[in-house]
C-alpha cells in the first residue's frame, strides 16, 4: 500500500458513497464536472487561438491600408500641418474601438523634417525600423502588428538622406482582446451550466432503480446472516433467495450459500473452541507437568466433560521390551465390574488394532486406575455402553510405543464435530503422557549409561574415578581406611580366541552379578575395561579386605558357561590390593599400587590375591617419583611432540579439521601417550607449560605446512587461569598467523564438573578473543544439559563408547540419536568419536551427525595433512 494510502482510505469516503447507488451518483457527478472542465479548457484554448490569429490578420490589414492612404497623400507632397491633421484624424477614427494605431517617424526623417509627437520607440518598433521587416507580437490580452514604411525611388526627391528600402517610419496597430474573450467565456459557461445536470439526473434515476432491485435481495440475505448464532443456523444461508435481477449479485448470494455449507462442515461452537484453546495450553510440557502428570490428566478429563460426555481416558505405553503401562482415568468412581469389563474391552480393542502385540501382555501389563472426581456418584458403565476412540504413538528416541484412548457413550463420536474434538483430546493426551514417558526414559537412560557399563550394567571407568575420589575425601574427613581391589581375569584372551567374543561377553555378563552378590551393599564395583574390574571396600578393618578378595575369587571360579560345542567355559582371576592411607593418599597412586600387585599375583601363578609388601611400597614410590621427574624434565627440555588425528565432514567425507594430541618423545625413541603423563603433569604443576609448548609446536607446523583447516586442542581445566592462558594463546596465534576462528578448545565433560564457574568465565573470554569451545566425551557425566544451558558451546563430541556400541546396543543408539537431535535444536555441531568402521560411519551420517573422528577416518600421526575438498573450516 502507498505510504499515504490509509489517509485517504474507506473511512474518509462518505457513507452515502459506500452504497452502489450512491457510488453511481458520485461517479456521475464527478464525471460531469470533469467533462465540463475539460470541454471548457479545450474550447477556450481553441477559441483563444482563433481570435488571436484573426486579430493579427486584421491588424496587418489595417496597417497596410493606413500605409496606402499615407502613400497617396505623400506622393502629392504634404505640409506639416497636413501631416498633423492626418494623424489626428486617424486616431479619432479608432477611438472607442479595441484598436489603437500609432505612426512612428524614423530618425532619418526626423533629422531632415523634425520630430513629431509620438510615444518613445520601444524595442519592437526599433527592430522593425532597423530590419525593415514587419513583426507580429502581443500577449494573451491582445494582438500587435508593426508595419515598416519603406522608402521607394519616388521618395528620394523629398528624402535625400534616405536610400531606397530604408524604413522611414512604422505603423503600430494593437487590438485589446480581453473584452471579446471574456464575453465568449461567459456565454460558454452559461451553456455548460444548462448541460451539466443532465448526466447527474440520469445517474439519479439509474441509482433509484438499482437500489430498489438490490434492497430486496440483499435485505433478505442480511436478515438471514443476522439470525446465525450457532453452527446449525448456517443451514439457513444455504436456502435459495429471491433474485436481484443481476447475474453478478445472484452469483455472490449463491457463493455465500456455498460458504455457509462448507463452514457447517467443519465449524465448531464457542464451547468447543474454548476447549480447543485449553487443550493447546496443555501442550507446553513443564517440569511441574512431568512431576504431576496424572493430576494434569485428571483435570483434563473434568474439563472435557464440560463439553462432551467422556467417562474415561486411558493410555497404554510400552516403556521396555516386556513392560507395558496402562493408566486409566475415570471421571467418577467405577464399580469393580466396570473396571473388569473395561479392561477386557480394552484388551480386545488393542488386539484388534495392533495385531495382538498388546493383547498378550497381561503378565507385563501394569494397570493403575485413577478417579478424577472421587466425590461423584458411582458410574454404572456396562460392556454395551463402552465405545472407545484410540490413537497410536511411536517415539523413536528413546524408543517408546503406545496408545492413548478415550471412552465415550456409544454414538457420541459419530458426530463429525465431536469426532474432531475427540482427536484433539487424544493428541493432547498422547503429548502429555508420551512426552512425560519419553523425557523420563531418556533422562533415566542417559543418567544410567553415563555411569554404567553397557555390557555388565555395573559402574564404568569414569564413575569409578569419581567415586574413588569421593571415597578418599570421605575417608580423610572421617579418618577411616578403605581398600582398593584390581581384579583381572586370567586367560580371558584364550576364551575369546577359542569360543569367540560373544561367549566372552556372556562370561563377563555372568561374572558381574556373581561378584556383586558376594560384596557388601555399600561396596563399589566397576568394570575398568576389557576383562579388568575395580572394587572399592569402604570402612574396613582387620582381615576384611583379604576375606572379601577370597570371596571374589571363589565367585569368579564358580561361574561356568557351556560353549556351542558343549565344552565348559570358566575363568579365574588375579587380584591386587592397596589400602588407603597405608599405601597412598591419591587416587592414581593408590590405583598404581593395586595394579602392580595384580600383575605380581599373575606372576606368582594367577588365581590369587597379593598384598603389597614393604619392598613393594618402596618400589612403587620410587616409580612415582621417577615418573614425575621424567615428565618435568620432558617439559623443561621440550620433548613434547604434537600428533594430529583427522576429522572428516560427514556429508562430503572431506578432511576439514585435526585434533591436536600431546605426546612425549623420550631420548630412547619411545613415545608416551597423554594418558601416561597428563595427570602427573597436573600434579607436578607443569600442565600449563605442557599445553603451551604443544600449542606452539602445533601452530608452527600448521604455519610451515600451509595448513588452513581447523585445529581442535585439548586443554586441562587446571590450566584455565584466564589471564595467563589467553595471554599465552594470544601471543602464539599472532606469532604464527593463526586465525582464532580456526581454533577449537576441548574440555572433557567430567573435568568441567568441578570447574563450572571458572569455565563460564573461560567461555566468555573465548568468545571475546574469537576462539570456540567444544565439550568432549559428551554424555559421560551427569551435567550434560547444564553445560548446554549455561555455556556458549559451539561443538559437542559425543562420547565414543556410545558411538562404537550403537550398532550392537539399542540403548547406545538411542542416546547418540538423542544427543544429535538435541544439538541440532541448539544449533550446536556434533562430532562422533570412535568411528572405526564403515558401518559406524554410515550410521553416524544417517543420524545427522556433522563430523566424524576415529581410526576409520585416520589414526593420529606427527604429520599435518592439508584440508581436502571445498569445505575449509568447521562452521
Written overview of the protein:
The chain is α/β, with parallel strands linked by helices. 50% of the residues lie in helices and 19% in strands. Strands 17-18-20-21-22-23-24-25 form an 8-stranded mixed barrel. A 5-stranded mixed β-sheet has the order 7-6-5-9-8, with helices on both faces. Strands 11-12-10-15-16 form a 5-stranded mixed β-sheet. The model is unreliable at 1-9, 358-363, 393-399, 409-413 and 867-875 (pLDDT under 50).
Write down the Rg: 54 Å
Beta-strand fraction estimate: 15-25%
Helix content: 40-55%
- What strand order characterises the main sheet? 17-18-20-21-22-23-24-25
Question: Based on helices, strands and strand pairing, what is the structural class?
Answer: alpha/beta
Low-confidence stretches: 1-9, 358-363, 393-399, 409-413, 867-875
What would you call the quaternary organization? single chain
User: Mean pLDDT score, rounded?
Assistant: 78
Query: How many DSSP E strands?
Result: 25
N-to-C terminal Cα separation, in Å? 41 Å
The number of helices is 28
Structural shape: elongated
Task: Give the biggest beta sheet.
Answer: 8 strands, mixed, barrel
Layout of strands and helices, then pairs:
Blueprint: H1 20-76, H2 80-93, E1 99-105, H3 107-113, H4 123-131, E2 135-139, E3 142-150, E4 167-176, H5 178-195, H6 197-226, H7 234-237, H8 247-266, H9 270-281, H10 287-291, H11 293-304, E5 310-320, E6 323-330, H12 336-354, E7 365-371, E8 386-395, E9 400-409, H13 416-451, H14 461-478, E10 482-489, H15 492-499, H16 501-517, E11 524-529, E12 532-537, H17 544-557, E13 561-562, E14 568-569, E15 573-580, H18 587-603, E16 609-610, H19 614-636, E17 640-649, E18 655-665, E19 671-672, H20 678-684, H21 687-705, E20 710-714, H22 722-736, E21 743-748, H23 749-752, H24 756-769, E22 772-778, H25 784-790, E23 795-798, H26 800-805, H27 810-826, E24 829-832, H28 838-846, E25 851-853
Helix pairs in contact: 1-5, 1-6, 9-13, 13-27, 15-16, 16-17, 18-19, 19-20, 21-22
Amino acid at each position: 500500500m502507498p505510504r499515504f494510502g490509509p489517509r485517504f482510505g474507506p473511512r474518509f469516503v462518505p457513507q452515502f458513497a459506500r452504497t452502489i447507488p450512491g457510488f453511481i451518483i458520485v461517479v456521475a457527478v464527478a464525471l460531469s464536472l470533469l467533462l465540463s472542465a475539460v470541454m471548457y479548457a479545450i474550447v477556450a484554448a481553441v477559441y483563444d487561438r482563433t481570435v488571436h490569429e484573426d486579430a493579427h490578420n486584421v491588424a496587418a490589414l489595417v496597417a497596410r491600408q493606413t500605409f496606402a492612404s499615407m502613400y497617396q497623400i505623400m506622393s502629392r507632397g504634404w505640409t506639416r500641418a497636413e501631416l498633423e491633421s492626418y494623424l489626428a484624424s486617424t486616431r479619432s477614427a479608432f477611438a472607442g474601438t479595441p484598436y489603437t494605431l500609432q505612426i512612428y517617424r524614423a530618425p532619418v526623417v526626423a533629422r531632415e523634417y523634425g520630430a513629431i509627437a509620438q510615444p518613445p520607440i520601444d524595442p519592437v518598433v526599433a527592430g522593425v525600423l532597423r530590419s525593415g521587416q514587419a513583426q507580429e507580437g502581443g500577449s494573451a490580452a491582445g494582438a500587435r502588428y508593426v508595419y515598416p514604411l519603406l522608402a521607394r525611388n519616388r521618395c528620394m526627391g523629398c528624402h535625400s538622406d534616405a536610400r531606397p528600402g530604408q524604413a522611414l517610419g512604422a505603423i503600430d496597430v494593437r487590438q485589446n482582446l480581453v473584452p471579446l474573450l471574456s464575453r465568449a467565456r461567459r456565454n460558454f459557461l452559461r451553456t455548460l451550466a444548462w448541460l451539466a445536470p443532465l448526466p447527474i439526473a440520469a445517474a439519479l434515476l439509474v441509482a433509484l432503480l438499482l437500489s430498489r432491485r438490490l434492497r430486496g435481495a440483499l435485505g433478505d440475505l442480511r436478515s438471514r446472516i443476522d439470525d446465525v448464532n450457532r453452527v446449525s443456523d448456517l443451514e439457513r444461508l444455504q436456502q435459495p433467495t429471491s433474485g436481484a435481477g443481476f447475474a453478478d449479485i445472484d452469483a455472490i448470494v449463491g457463493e455465500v450459500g456455498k460458504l455457509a455449507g462448507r463452514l457447517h462442515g467443519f465449524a465448531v461452537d464457542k464451547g468447543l473452541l474454548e476447549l480447543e484453546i485449553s487443550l493447546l495450553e496443555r501442550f507446553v510440557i513443564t517440569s511441574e507437568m512431568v512431576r504431576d502428570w496424572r493430576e494434569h490428566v485428571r483435570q483434563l478429563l473434568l474439563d472435557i466433560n464440560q463439553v462432551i460426555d467422556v467417562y474415561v481416558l486411558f493410555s497404554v505405553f510400552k516403556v521396555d521390551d516386556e513392560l507395558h503401562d496402562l493408566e486409566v482415568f475415570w471421571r467418577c468412581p467405577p464399580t469393580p465390574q466396570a473396571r473388569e469389563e473395561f479392561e477386557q474391552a480394552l484388551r480386545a480393542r488393542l488386539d484388534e488394532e495392533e495385531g495382538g502385540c498388546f493383547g498378550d501382555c497381561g503378565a507385563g501389563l501394569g494397570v493403575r486406575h485413577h478417579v478424577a472426581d472421587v466425590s461423584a456418584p458411582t458410574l454404572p458403565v456396562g460392556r454395551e455402553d463402552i465405545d472407545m476412540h484410540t490413537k497410536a504413538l511411536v517415539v523413536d528416541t528413546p524408543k517408546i510405543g503406545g496408545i492413548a484412548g478415550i471412552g465415550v457413550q456409544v454414538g457420541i463420536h459419530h458426530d463429525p464435530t465431536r469426532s474432531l474434538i475427540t482427536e484433539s483430546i487424544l493428541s493432547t493426551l498422547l503429548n502429555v503422557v508420551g512426552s512425560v514417558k519419553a523425557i523420563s526414559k531418556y533422562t533415566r537412560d542417559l543418567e544410567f549409561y553415563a555411569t554404567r557399563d553397557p555390557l555388565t550394567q555395573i559402574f564404568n571407568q569414569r564413575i569409578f574415578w569419581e567415586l574413588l575420589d569421593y571415597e578418599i575425601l570421605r575417608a580423610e574427613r572421617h579418618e577411616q581406611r578403605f581398600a582398593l581391589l584390581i581384579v583381572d581375569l586370567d586367560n580371558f584372551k584364550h576364551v575369546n580366541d577359542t569360543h569367540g567374543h560373544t561367549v566372552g561377553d556372556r562370561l563377563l555378563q555372568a561374572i558381574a552379578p556373581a561378584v556383586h552378590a558376594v560384596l557388601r551393599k555399600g561396596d563399589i564395583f566397576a568394570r575398568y575395561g576389557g576383562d579388568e574390574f575395580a572394587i572399592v571396600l569402604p570402612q574396613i578393618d582387620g582381615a576384611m579386605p583379604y576375606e572379601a578378595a577370597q570371596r571374589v575369587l571363589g565367585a569368579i571360579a564358580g561361574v561356568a558357561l557351556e560353549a556351542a560345542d558343549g565344552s565348559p567355559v570358566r575363568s579365574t582371576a588375579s587380584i591386587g590390593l592397596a589400602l588407603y592411607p597405608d599405601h597412598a593418599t591419591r587416587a592414581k597412586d593408590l590405583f598404581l599400587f593395586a595394579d602392580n600387585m595384580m600383575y605380581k599375583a599373575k606372576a606368582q601363578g594367577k588365581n590369587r590375591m597379593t598384598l603389597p609388601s614393604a619392598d613393594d611400597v618402596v618400589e612403587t614410590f620410587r616409580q612415582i617419583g621417577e615418573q614425575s621427574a621424567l615428565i618435568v624434565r620432558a617439559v623443561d627440555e621440550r620433548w613434547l611432540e604434537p600428533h594430529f588425528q583427522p576429522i572428516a565432514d560427514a556429508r562430503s567425507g572431506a578432511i576439514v579439521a585435526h585434533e591436536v594430541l600431546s605426546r612425549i618423545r623420550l631420548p630412547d625413541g619411545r613415545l608416551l601417550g597423554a594418558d601416561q603423563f597428563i595427570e602427573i603433569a597436573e600434579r607436578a604443576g607443569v600442565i600449563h607449560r605442557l599445553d603451551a609448548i604443544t600449542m606452539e609446536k602445533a601452530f608452527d607446523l600448521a604455519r610451515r605446512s600451509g595448513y588452513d583447516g581447523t585445529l581442535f586442542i585439548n586443554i586441562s581445566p587446571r590450566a584455565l587461569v584466564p589471564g595467563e592462558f589467553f595471554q599465552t594463546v594470544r601471543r602464539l596465534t599472532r606469532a604464527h598467523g593463526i586465525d582464532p576462528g580456526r581454533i577449537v578448545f576441548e574440555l572433557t565433560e567430567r573435568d568441567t564438573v568441578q570447574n563450572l564457574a571458572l569455565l563460564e568465565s573461560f567461555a566468555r573470554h573465548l568468545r571475546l578473543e574469537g576462539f570456540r569451545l567444544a565439550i568432549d566425551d559428551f554424555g559421560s557425566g551427569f551435567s550434560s544439559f547444564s553445560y548446554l544451558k549455561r555455556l556458549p558451546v559451539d561443538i559437542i563430541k559425543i562420547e565414543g563408547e556410545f558411538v562404537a556400541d550403537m550398532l550392537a546396543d539399542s540403548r547406545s543408539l538411542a542416546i547418540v540419536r538423542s544427543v544429535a537431535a538435541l544439538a541440532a535444536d541448539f544449533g550446536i555441531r556434533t562430532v562422533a568419536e570412535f568411528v572405526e568402521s564403515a558401518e559406524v560411519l554410515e550410521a553416524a551420517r544417517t543420524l545427522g551427525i556433522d563430523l566424524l573422528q576415529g581410526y576409520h577416518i585416520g589414526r593420529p600421526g606427527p604429520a599435518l595433512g592439508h584440508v581436502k575438498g571445498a569445505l575449509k573450516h568447521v562452521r
